[in-house]
């Protein structure tokens, strides 16, 4: 079905909220008069700032447009609750908007349908549906958190053409090109948080921040470190204004206070094997409003995440290089074999500089 032009414009605006609106969804709004002229438009701003509908109403007011009787095209059900901002449905009704066309109902079970009900009660006509699939694709993390109580997990891997992600001795070396690494930073920037394992920190001392592309905010850093071995001097602590959470398996470690003094939050979630309980960690991150979780980890943590069925999407960069048998480390530790392998669907495949970028998603049946 062809989308109405204003809804297409609203979806384009929603894209601009990527990396900005966390933990709020990426939403766009276009207000159109009876003659089809655009009266105001906007998208979700930073958390605590205006939602898309308010930004569009403000835009219309700034241009001196009268929106009474106009139609608001918005990519998600207008909110009905007092959160960091006031309810958008009340603002639309108070401004005299005559009709709201929304892509879909809010996936938050606590508020779903309430915005529409309030608009109806205020005499505003409602249409729901155009752009629903596009809104879900744009907001996998928000929908995942609301519907499954955990983030959308996207694991990035940078590998040689034969799938090796590090040298045998674990030495850090760039495998992929500078354009591919810059592209990887853009994916970091859209995530609420970046996750890594202690093995990667001890080997590479990575920063795992966004430096190669502009960023409205730095994603949080999440570290899986069973025994709290991360050195206090690790570079991941040096990024300014970034929240660092460390999941461990030792509730009473003497290192906790030292790491907390560096500003890190330390959370003990042990599993039966004395490592971090990864499913419980994802549920905890969901409660802490993490929408998209960008994983850059080594073969051990990647392997555990795959074996537990916790990865929703793969972002794989392949460099035109071959390391061959006996050289280089595979992207994953042992997996259960071809019969039990998780089913994946390829999505977009693009060339980034000299490398390839492949996006693959776990099929819905294989997502947790
Ligand atoms: N090319 C690429 O895309 C990337 C490559 N790398 C490379 O990977 C290498 C490091 O790999 P690796 O040592 O596997 O590091 P990881 O980042 O996978 O960290 C692994 C550690 O996480 C801890 N852990 C805690 N709970 C769990 C759990 N439930 N499941 C699995 N692990 C858990 C374990 O520590 P403990 O035993 O203490 O419990 C384990 O040793 C480096 O050489 C690095 O350069 C890393 C990232 C990306
Ligand atoms: N080797 C490799 C990558 N490795 C990943 O990048 C991390 C370093 O991040 P930073 O310290 O922020 O620059 C490193 O620890 C590992 O997770 N990434 C890539 O895009 N291409 C590559 O060839």
UniProtKB/TrEMBL annotation:
> Which CDD domains does this entry report, sorted A to Z?
Riboflavin_deaminase-reductase
What does the record give under GO molecular function?
5-amino-6-(5-phosphoribosylamino)uracil reductase activity; diaminohydroxyphosphoribosylaminopyrimidine deaminase activity; NADP binding; zinc ion binding
| Cofactor info, note text | Binds 1 zinc ion.
Where substrate binds, per the record, is at 172, 188, 208, 211, 296
Q: What cofactors does the UniProt entry give for this protein?
A: Zn(2+)
Q: Where does NADP(+) bind?
A: 158, 174, 200, 204, 226, 298-304
The UniProt record gives the binding positions of Zn(2+) as 51, 79, 88
Q: Which domain of life is it from?
A: Bacteria
Gene3D superfamilies the record matches? Cytidine Deaminase, domain 2, Dihydrofolate Reductase, subunit A
Biological process according to GO:
riboflavin biosynthetic process
Domain CMP/dCMP-type deaminase, first and last residues per copy: 1-119
Quote the pathway field.
Cofactor biosynthesis; riboflavin biosynthesis; 5-amino-6-(D-ribitylamino)uracil from GTP: step 3/4; Cofactor biosynthesis; riboflavin biosynthesis; 5-amino-6-(D-ribitylamino)uracil from GTP: step 2/4
Catalysed reaction(s)?
Answer: 2,5-diamino-6-hydroxy-4-(5-phosphoribosylamino)-pyrimidine + H2O + H(+) = 5-amino-6-(5-phospho-D-ribosylamino)uracil + NH4(+); 5-amino-6-(5-phospho-D-ribitylamino)uracil + NADP(+) = 5-amino-6-(5-phospho-D-ribosylamino)uracil + NADPH + H(+)
- List the active-site residues: 53
- Give coiled-coil spans as residue ranges: none
Q: What is its EC number?
A: 3.5.4.26, 1.1.1.193
Keyword terms, alphabetized: Hydrolase, Metal-binding, Multifunctional enzyme, NADP, Oxidoreductase, Riboflavin biosynthesis, Zinc
Q: Spell out the NCBIfam families in the cross-references.
A: eubact_ribD, ribD_Cterm
Family note = In the N-terminal section; belongs to the cytidine and deoxycytidylate deaminase family. In the C-terminal section; belongs to the HTP reductase family.
Function, please?
A: Converts 2,5-diamino-6-(ribosylamino)-4(3h)-pyrimidinone 5'-phosphate into 5-amino-6-(ribosylamino)-2,4(1h,3h)-pyrimidinedione 5'-phosphate.
Protein known as? Riboflavin biosynthesis protein RibD
Give the species: Ramlibacter algicola
Instruction: Give the gene symbol.
Output: ribD
């Amino acid at each position: 079905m062809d989308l109405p032009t204003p809804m297409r414009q609203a979806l384009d605006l929603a894209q601009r909220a990527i990396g900005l609106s966390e933990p709020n969804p990426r939403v766009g709004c276009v207000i159109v008069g009876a003659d089809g002229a655009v009266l105001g438009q906007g998208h979700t701003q930073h958390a605590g700032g205006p939602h898309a509908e308010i930004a569009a109403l403000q835009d219309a007011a700034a241009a001196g447009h009268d929106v009474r009787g106009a139609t608001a095209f918005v990519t998600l059900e207008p909110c009905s609750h007092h959160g960091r901002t006031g309810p958008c449905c009340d603002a639309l009704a108070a401004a005299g908007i005559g009709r709201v066309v929304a892509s879909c109902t809010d996936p938050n079970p606590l508020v779903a349908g309430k915005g529409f009900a309030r608009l109806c009660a205020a005499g505003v006509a409602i249409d729901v549906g155009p752009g629903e699939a596009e809104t879900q694709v744009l907001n996998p993390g928000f929908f995942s958190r609301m519907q499954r109580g955990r983030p959308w997990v996207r694991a990035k891997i940078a590998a040689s053409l034969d799938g090796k992600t590090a040298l045998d001795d674990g030495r850090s070396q760039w495998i992929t090109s500078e354009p591919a690494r810059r592209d990887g930073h853009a994916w970091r920037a859209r995530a609420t948080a970046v996750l890594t394992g202690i093995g990667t920190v001890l080997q590479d001392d990575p920063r795992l921040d966004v430096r190669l592309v502009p960023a409205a905010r730095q994603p949080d850093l999440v570290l899986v470190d069973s025994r709290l071995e991360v050195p206090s001097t690790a570079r991941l602590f040096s990024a300014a204004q970034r929240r660092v959470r460390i999941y461990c398996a030792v509730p009473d470690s003497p290192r906790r206070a030292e790491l907390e003094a560096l500003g890190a939050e330390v959370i003990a979630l042990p599993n039966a094997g004395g490592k971090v309980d990864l499913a419980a960690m994802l549920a905890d991150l969901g409660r802490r409003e993490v929408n998209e979780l960008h994983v850059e980890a080594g073969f051990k943590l990647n392997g555990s995440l795959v074996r537990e069925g916790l990865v929703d999407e793969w972002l794989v960069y392949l460099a035109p290089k071959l390391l061959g048998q006996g050289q280089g480390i595979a992207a994953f530790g042992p997996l259960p074999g071809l019969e039990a392998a998780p089913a994946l669907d390829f999505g977009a495949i693009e060339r980034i500089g000299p490398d390839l970028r492949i996006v693959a998603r776990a099929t819905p049946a294989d997502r947790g």
